[in-house]
Amino acid sequence: QVQLVESGGGVVQPGGSLRLSCAASGFTFSSYDMHWVRQAPGKGLEWVAFIRYDGSNKYYADSVKGRFTISRDNSKNTLSLQMNSLRAEDTAVFYCCSGFHLYYFDYWGQGTLVTVSS
Amino acid sequence: QSALTQPASVSGSPGQSITISCTGTSSDVGGYNYVSWYQQHPGKVPKLTIYDVSKRPSGVSNRFSGSKSGNTASLTISGLQAEDEADYYCCSYAGSSTYVVFGGGTKLTVL
């Protein structure tokens, strides 16, 4: 069965950096578009970033553009999110999701919590 | 403030039907047939419930249905059950600059 397992969350100071990873299994990772979606504590869902199945296209929400970088290693079935210049408002659970282009998110990981605080 | 507008809460009794609305603009909901809905129980991971406006993923009950009229999409749950109590989020493709937008979420209470 499809499994997406995020890691790398934690507490970081404002202005700091963090790298999230997502290990995929149970499906042909290299054939699927992937996303990061986040949810601030007690708040709604917010799409963060997209990467095409072959890594050829990457798109970002305006709120993270220029600070976050999405990448993937299809040889290791791994999705990553490099987060720089972190702000308090980036505090959230970050979910790794598979999806069909930008149209929907069909499988979700359990999420990893990122807390930006001094 | 979310790009798509949903009611903060809706409620219904077991066996009844409820509808959750999701209002956007011609740049998102109204412009594309790529509206999706997600069910999230407290402390749990969101689950895809409806995609492409009205399609149900395998395993999702046929009590869940989706539709769209103009800039407003709707999720209808018929024959309400206690297990349907959850938060529901709508989402839409929003074109090649904004890409993806979510609604603020609706808390469904089964009375």
Description:
The complex is a heterodimer of chains A (118) and B (111). The termini of chain A are far apart. The model of chain A has no long low-confidence stretch (mean pLDDT 97). With 118 residues, chain A is mostly beta strands. In chain A, strand 4 and strand 5 (45-51) form a beta hairpin. Helices cover 0% and strands 54% of the residues of chain A. In chain B, the strands form two sheets. In chain B, strands 1, 3, 4, 7, 8 and 9 form a six-stranded mixed β-sheet that branches. In chain B, strands 2-6-5 form a three-stranded antiparallel β-sheet, with no helix packed on it. Helix content of chain B is 4%, strand content 43%. By secondary structure, chain B is mainly β. Chain B contains one helix and nine strands; from the N terminus they run E-E-E-E-E-E-E-H-E-E. Chain B is globular. In chain B, strand 5 and strand 6 form a beta hairpin. Classes of the chains: A mainly beta (118), B mainly beta (111).
| Biggest beta-sheet profile of chain A | 7 strands, mixed
- Count every beta strand of chain B, where a strand is a DSSP E run of 2 or more residues: 9
Helix-strand pattern of chain B: EEEEEEEHEE
Label the overall shape of chain A: globular
The portion of residues forming beta strands of chain A comes to over 45%
| Backbone CA Rg of chain B | 13 Å
Quote the distance from N terminus to C terminus of chain B. 29 Å
Ranges of chain A where pLDDT stays below 50 over 5 or more residues in a row are none
- Average per-residue pLDDT of chain B, rounded, comes to 96
Largest interface: A-B, 20 and 22 residues
The string of secondary-structure elements of chain A, in order, is: EEEEEEEEEEE
